Each structure stands twice: as C-alpha cells, then as structure tokens.
Amino acid sequence: MASLHDQLLPRRLLCPICQRALSACICHWTSPIDHAVDVLILQHPLEVNNAKNSVRLLHLSLPYSKLLVGSVFDADELQALMHAPSRIRNVSESETVQPVLLYTDDASTPNTSHFDARTMLIDKQQPLKRIRLVVIDGTWRKSRKMLFENPLLQTLPRMVLIDTPISRYTIRKSHKPEQLSTLEATGYALMQLERNSEKYHPLLTAFDNFVLQQGYMRMHGQPVRRAE
C-alpha cells in the first residue's frame, strides 16, 4: 500500500502519445511509414511498462498496425482481429486477408505450415494475395507460452526470417545470439514482404536512437519507466 507521503508526491508528467515520462518521450524518433502490409501486435502485459520495450515505437511508426495487450486471448476476439478487413488505405474491405505468424521455427509442430515471403506461397502451393503479419511481443519464454496458450496462433502459417543482420538491441539480453527485438523482426519482415528495404530504414534509425536514448538515461540514472 502506498504511504500518504507517496500519494502526495507529484506524478511525473507523461507524454499523451507514447505514455512515457516527458523526459523519456520517444515521439520525436518516430517517422510514420506508409506500410503496405497489415500488422497485428500481441503484446504480453509484462512488456507494457518495460522502458526498453520497442513495441510502442513500432506501433507509432506503423499507422495501420493494431496493438492488443494480453497473454491468453478470447478465441473469438482473436479470430475476428486476425481475419478483420485490412486497415491499409485504398484496400477494399471485401478483400480477404490471411493472417501469418512471424515466429521462429524452433516451436513448430509436424502440422505447422510455412509461408515464404519471396513467393507468397504457403508450403510452396497455396498463393496469398494479402496477408496480416501477426507478431508476438514478449521475452522468449513468455512469447513461447503465449503461442501454446492460444491454439489459434499455432494454426497460422509461419513466416521465418532469413538472412537478417545481427541485432542492434544492445540494451536488453537475448535468449539466443540471433534473436531480434520485436521492432527489428517486424521491420525486416516488412522489408522482405514488400521487397523494399530502403523504405524501412527510418524505422531502424528510430530504433537506433531509441536504444542510445535508453542507454544514456540509464547511465545517468534518469527515470525511464513508462506509466503504470
């Protein structure tokens, strides 16, 4: 329970957009990108207030993305979100959108199908015209748990990244050397899907600046946590 002294302390001023302390605001790093692929981000609740998390920056940079916080989702709600009409401008609401899960191959099962961004084919057979990239945001352990606690996610075709650079996420430990932040993984996936890496350079530049900002603030003992 908070003490009377704590209750009387003035709350830190927060940015109304990124919900971080004004001293740690990340809005000036964002540069909205006219992405051509729908993105649905499923964020674990423990990541919401983690100052080192990259999803808020990603979400603000992708204006047509959808962000949902939770660990175990209502199956009907998740199904509706994954198959909802495209949020991309100038795309007909009647156009079918196929959800594809961006995830590593180490949690696949014999029934897992695979989506190839180079050919837009599922298991080298079924062609897709328009997809929705479904991204799980959490630690390696939490994201894996979310995958198995939401059976619908296991039914999705799996997109596995290939030939990606080493992560720039120097402010957070990774489970494996080849692991990327959610922002990096999504950015590289969109580069491959749209066959346009230059378009997403501003996203990676924003991420570099974000990492530098977080490192500087931690080094100088400044508060970087987001709002509770």
Largest sheet: 5 strands, parallel
The largest beta-sheet arranges its strands as 2-1-7-3-8
Helix content: 25-40%
How far apart, in Å, are the first and last alpha carbons? 15 Å
List SSEs in N-to-C order: HEHEHEEEEEHHEHH
* Tally of strands: 8
Q: If you average the pLDDT, what whole number results?
A: 87
Question: What's the overall geometry?
Answer: globular
Rg to the nearest angstrom? Answer: 18 Å
Main traits of this protein?
228 residues; 7 helices; globular; 13% strand; three-stranded antiparallel beta sheet
Quick gist of this model?
This protein is an alpha/beta fold and 228 residues long.
Characterise this structure.
With 228 residues, the protein is α/β, with parallel strands linked by helices. It contains 7 helices and 8 strands. The strands form 2 sheets. A 5-stranded parallel beta sheet has the order 2-1-7-3-8. It has a 3-stranded antiparallel beta sheet with strand order 4-5-6, with no helix packed on it. Strand 5 and strand 6 form a beta hairpin. The two termini are 15 Å apart. The C terminus is likely disordered.
Which helices and strands appear, and what pairs or packs with what?
Blueprint: H1 4-8, E1 38-43, H2 55-61, E2 66-69, H3 75-82, E3 98-102, E4 115-116, E5 121-122, E6 126-127, E7 131-137, H4 140-149, H5 151-154, E8 158-159, H6 182-194, H7 201-219
Parallel strand pairs: 1-2, 1-7, 3-7, 3-8
Antiparallel strand pairs: 4-5, 5-6
